[in-house]
From TrEMBL:
Name of the featured protein: Prolyl-tRNA synthetase associated domain-containing protein
Pfam families assigned: tRNA_edit (PF04073)
Protein source organism: Candidatus Egerieimonas intestinavium
GO terms of molecular function: aminoacyl-tRNA deacylase activity
Superkingdom of the source species: Bacteria
Family the entry assigns: Belongs to the PRORSD1 family.
Gene3D superfamilies in alphabetical order: YbaK/aminoacyl-tRNA synthetase-associated domain
Source lineage: Bacteria, Bacillati, Bacillota, Clostridia, Lachnospirales
Residues of the YbaK/aminoacyl-tRNA synthetase-associated domain: 40-164
Amino acid sequence: MEIIKVENGSPADLESRLPRERHTYELLEQLQIPFLRVDHQPAATIADCSLVDQELGVDMCKNLFLTNAQRTKFYLLLMPGEKKFKTKDLSKQINSARLSFGEGEYMEKFLEISPGAVSVMGLMNDREQQVQLLIDRDILGQEFLGCHPCVNTSSMRISMKDILEKFLPALHREYIEVVL
């Protein structure tokens, strides 16, 4: 994977970026949340992100978009990339039987994100708060969060403190801590 140099903040040329990516940077700047950023070839999986991890000095977070069997409740789970996801363990903690991966159409509808680019940043697009944020305890204990800016051709390193104390409050969002 080719990595373009690590930079502080937004790219100089925002016009060439997709609107969802531009909006991510604009919101982070408005909230005065500093971040490191790197551009790269599409990275849709944790395995794809190994070089990105090295360049940014952070392990990219695994982001899973989940739904209940009836497709009436949706969840965004942030967890360490190396952890195995066990539906049964999570289902018990959030009192939701038969969780499965949510379809791309719901990702687009609620988060304005395509499969392979799922990120906590997509919550800025969920104005009706249809998606409940779930964060694994191990992620909460990290100094930095690695995530995509709503596209999988860039990655960012952001302070977890800024996510919890600036980003989520600005969106009027709360999270549920889970242990996987």
